[in-house]
Amino acid sequence: MSAIKFKHSLAIIIGMLGLIAVFLLWLFFSGNSVLKTAFLKALPMPTILVGNKTIYSNEIFARIDSARLVYAKNKNFNAGSARTEILDRLIWEKQLEVLALSRSAKLANWKNFQSDSQTRNPGPILEKAYESLGREEAFKFWFYSQKDLNPTGYSVFDEIKQQLASGTPFSTLAKQYSADSNSAQTSGDIGPIELKNLLYELREPVAQAQLQETLYLPSRIGLHVVQVYQKINIDGKDVVYLRQIFIKGSDFEAWAKNETKNYKIKYLLEF
Questions:
Q1: pTM here?
Q2: Rg of the chain taking only CA atoms, in angstroms
Q3: What's 32-145+260-267's CATH class?
Q4: Where do the structural domains in the chain lie, given as residue ranges?
Q5: pLDDT one-digit tens code per residue, 48-105
Q6: Labelling 217: which of 118, 123, 246, 264 has CA 20 to 30 A away?
Q7: What CA–CA distance (Å, rounded) separates 40 from 46?
Q8: In Å, how far are 72, 84, 86, 94, 95 from 81, measured between CA atoms?
Q9: Residue 218: Cβ-neighbour burial (10 angstroms; 0-12, 13-18, 19+)
Q10: Is residue 245 packed enough to be buried (19+ CB in 10 Å), middle (13-18) or exposed (0-12)?
């Protein structure tokens, strides 16, 4: 390559880099405008930093537009309030993501924690919101599986095991320990329930349990002592009859907020 051609190519490169620099400076330091919003919707620009995780501009605007479409017929819809709520939710999601990584939490597949209504063709408007909820539920399941994070709940497990082994009736223990008012009032008997309507994480252990076997199970909502006392099939539907003692365990949200309270949140650009 001749010196003239090299200088010409170098000038073009420097010019392009200069234009890019000017564009980025405009994005990061200019005020809001219709043109700027259009760019931020289209480009994944780093917008908010939560710990070491980034929230991108197109992700924010996609959520805002989705909320506007979902609530378009609601006369009480407030775009400003919706924007604040969406930003709070996105920041919370990133905080949980950083927390899970810091704890080396091995989370189950979040898709398993979605309800049928969330998995039945939700469409692009609700898909991300349902994914977010599914990931949080998976994290809750991990949390309630940890004995060191739920010492009181697991000590109740041990107490119930000892009392059952010593001959105390399940019904007596349900009245004494169950945090679920329904099961406490019915001596732990929650009657028939279709297997598929159980929480995902309880479904397989209950399906495989022997009659009268006692199971000690964590879930996304707490801890469960469960006995299956009958299994039947009605019109092709598997139905189980259960006794349950429900133990709340620790408060996941309070724990997560305390763990993430010192995470730095930095807004990188105005939007």
A1: 0.85
A2: 26
A3: mainly alpha
A4: 1-30, 32-145+260-267, 152-249
A5: 999 989 999 898 888 888 777 777 666 677 777 888 888 999 999 999 999 999 999 9
A6: 118
A7: 10
A8: 14, 5, 9, 20, 21
A9: buried
A10: buried
